[in-house]
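lol ok so funny story. i was supposed to be doing the assay writeup but got distracted and ended up predicting the structure for this chain instead. priorities right. anyway since i did it might as well share w the group, maybe its usefull for someone
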Amino acid sequence: MSNDRFKIDVEGSVQVLHFSLPPTLDNIEVDSLIESVLKQLEANGDRSWIVDLSHTEYLGSSMLGLFVNIREKIRRAGGMLVLCGMSPPLTRIFKTCCLERLFTIVKSRSDAMALVSRN
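and the output, tada:
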């Protein structure tokens, strides 16, 4: 599944969600993106998920809320979520919002794959 702002690949039993987000999105784009991502998550929340943010420069409050929502849905379904590929500015946003406590964050996609493979 993909659209202009995200795509989902399957690698073995792992769902890899790639975001490609510009620094700004209008409200209509954000709402559509959130709806699309959550719809895909409903069908596969019980799996291990990696969210690759290597092509994302900035996340606003709506998108950060989406990440919390994604985490909760995956956790409730018994899946695992790992974030990777975060730039230093994006890492600062997560730390400023104290979100690094909620998420498992690793540097690279290979690190994320190794981590979900152990569980």
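The first helix runs from residue 27 to 44. The mean pLDDT is 88.
back to the writeup now i swear
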